[in-house]
């Protein structure tokens, strides 16, 4: 499939999922995960109308960021080590993988030095899979309380990854769990402002995530494909 045909196919599937859930398509943002494609492909996606780019590591994202800064919103969606914060804060508009107070403190320190506020999503391991990063749902309220003194870190929502499953319908409880957790946290008014974003759903399961309330879906292969990056 060409990039244009993949984009059209994804849009058709998103519209159908929104219709099934009684949602508006404009309430959903697609993040193109470009870690498996070249800068040229990421640039072509932006020219075709994609406005959000997701990357897992700064060294892999550098060329794309330099080519597309100012043209796309950049999301850091990978595990973030504290010593890598200096490379990420100030370049990425959102961080999706906040999962500990030491990381939040490092983000806050760098953001303050730059005079910016960083919108972050708290990563939650809803499924409890040992291979997945993130807090357990029970740990999230404490982290939100700990974030209050860190004015340069703004929690805006939650992120999760569902276990890969050949039958996407089986991922539904994970996505529903994240939505229900967000709603519980908002009812408790733990954060300074309501948590609005749910970053959930990838190439294999995004339609189920949309039906369960995702506001951001992170789409790689199904949207931009996968290329041989050689030694990259």
Description of the molecule:
- The chain is α/β, with parallel strands linked by helices and 232 residues long.
- Helices cover 40% and strands 16% of the residues.
- The chain has an 8-stranded parallel sheet with strand order 7-6-5-4-3-2-1-8.
- α2 crosses α3.
- The chain is globular, with a radius of gyration of 17 Å.
- It starts with a helix and ends in an 8-residue tail after the last helix.
Q: How would you concisely characterize the structure shown here?
A:
With 232 residues, this protein is α/β, with parallel strands linked by helices.
**Main beta sheet: strand number and arrangement?**
8 strands, parallel
Helical stretch tally:
9
Radius of gyration over C-alpha positions, nearest whole angstrom: 17 Å
The H-and-E topology, N to C, reads as: HEHEHEHEHEHEHEHEH
Overall tally of domains: 1
Helix and strand content put the structural class at alpha/beta
Oligomer category: single chain
CATH architectural group: Alpha-Beta Barrel
CATH fold naming: TIM Barrel
Report helical residue fraction: 25-40%
- The end-to-end span amounts to 23 Å
CATH level 1 name: Alpha Beta
Mean pLDDT: 96
**Which stretches are poorly predicted, pLDDT < 50 over at least 5 residues?**
none
Strand content: 15-25%
Shape: globular
CATH homologous superfamily assignment = Alanine racemase
